[in-house]
Design goal:
Layout (H helix, E strand, L loop, with lengths): L35 E6 L2 E5 L12 H19 L1
Antiparallel strand pairs: 1-2
Length: 80
């Protein structure tokens, strides 16, 4: 069966990584990977996204967790 590479058909991601998405492109999520919506009150809406993070390198889990926490903290502080 021939591959359909037309822009009207979803395409298969051949390798995991960050994606550069261009305006007008369509993204089709894999089954089960869509965000879920939960409401805890009429004024609060929470979105839950299934996320998987793979970190490859040398060091301990704790060291990587600390580096990630520090980077996120810097980003949050920059928003304030």
């Amino acid at each position: 069966m021939a591959k359909d590479n037309s822009p009207d058909q979803p395409q298969v991601v051949e390798r995991t990584g960050l994606a550069l998405v261009h305006e007008g492109e369509r993204i089709f999520p894999d089954a089960g990977s869509m965000a879920t919506l939960a409401t805890s009150s009429p004024n609060i809406v929470n979105y839950y996204f299934p996320v998987e993070i793979e970190i490859i390198g040398q060091g301990t889990r704790e060291a990587f967790a600390e580096m990630i926490y520090d980077a996120l903290q810097r980003e949050f502080n920059a928003l304030a």
